[in-house]
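This protein record is not my work; I was only asked to verify it. The record follows directly below this note.
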Amino acid sequence: MGDTVVGRAPHQPLAPVDPNADTVLPHREPKHPEPRRTQGRTKAPRPTSTAPIYSFLIGALKDPISLDRPARIGRKPSSPRIVVGAQPRLVRVVSPQREVSATHLELRQTGSSIIVTDLRSTNGTVVLVPGSTPRKLLQGESVVVSPGTLVDIGDENILQILPLERLA
């Protein structure tokens, strides 16, 4: 009896064997031809509009901080060990009574939602969504909030979530 090779047409050669590889795949010709070129170049799609982003203020700070990437807020904030996506913006706040943890809170925009996450802070995070009663987050808890929400992290550091803006 002869050997049977599955996944290979009789006229196709086997892929070269790499002794260090775990899997050998059959060689296949591409099904689709190369994309047509226009005047020697391919055209890349252009963005039609800029994505709307949220921002926030801290206390009496006059310049809003954009949520175009996650923000980690604290006395001495640090990035996570493993970063997925954009490198977070580190926002340092003053905490003379040391009520604010080193890395206390993360604010993140995911799609059209704003997510507040307590990063296992010592003294906690209080969230006041407009029209609701204040809520103290559990250590490590996340909550979706809306514009106008106030987030108290201690030592008179109150964050205010601002409405959507368009990037210029």
About this structure: Residues 4-10, 12-33, 41-49 have pLDDT under 50 and may be disordered. The two ends are 71 Å apart (CA to CA). Residues 55 and 66 are 4 Å apart (CA to CA).
